[in-house]
Amino acid sequence: MTETTKKKIFQPLKLNNMTLKNRLLRSATWEGIAALDGSIDERTYSIYEELAKGGVGGIITGFTSVSDNDTYFEGMMRLSNDKLIPQYKKLTDIAHKENCPIIAQLALGAYYKNDREIRPNQMTEEDIKNTIDLFIKAAEREKQANYDGVQIHAAHFFFLSRFISPLINERNENGSIDNRIRILIEILKGIKSKNLGLHVSLKINSSDFEMGELMKKNVWKYAKKWQKKELTQLKLVGMGLREVE
Ligand SMILES: Cc1cc2nc3c(=O)[nH]c(=O)nc-3n(C[C@H](O)[C@H](O)[C@H](O)COP(=O)(O)O)c2cc1C
Questions:
Q1: If exposure means fewest CB atoms within 10 Å of the residue's CB, which of 81, 98, 175, 192 is most exposed?
Q2: Is domain 21-244 in CATH 3.20.20.70, yes or no?
Q3: Is 150 left (phi over 0), alpha (psi -120 to 50) or beta?
């Protein structure tokens, strides 16, 4: 690492509403220790306190489900219910005490109806609208819990990455890419339209490593397009559906 790079890493960075004291951003990391209803306790608080005290410029939380009935993984944090807001406000207070902005990563493991997983192919228009709404409502709760930003998790085989991938979701096979990714745009636009003042980012696979995949050829085109309008940050991950199946 050159001296110039070192200097830059430890310089503050302003990203819209957030000022990072340096350019080290902790990537989302699932802890798996929340209660089934998404409640968190001292164990989670102490992990985040240690992270913030460690000196990173900002923290992206582990994936946080937007739905009460999403049982895709155990121990998920949740912003799916107003009753959880005070517990998560305590989490953001801990980070802010160390002058460390904190971004909640919003995710949906899978979409469930009457305790049954509904696959992307089987979803009705109403199911899709409900899903968009779940993300927007969770972002509003984030604001109430005093997070600085939101990262929408559309990577790593989570619901949104499956929904937009032609490898999994065969609906709209011959439609445009804009239509295929409309769910993401609607979520991002919906969040922006609430004027929450949150830093809005999206985590998406750069490739699914298969023929017929969505992103490989299009990722830069969409990155540029989104950067102008819906997003303040885009996180590309070199991990695709075929790698995590
Ligand atoms: C134990 C563990 C838990 C992780 N949990 C999450 C998570 O909750 N959400 C997420 O998007 N990525 C998660 N990741 C992936 C990391 O955030 C990160 O994307 C990955 O380690 C690759 O690093 P890079 O994105 O900087 O290349 C996890 C990784 C590990 C090792």
A1: 175
A2: yes
A3: beta
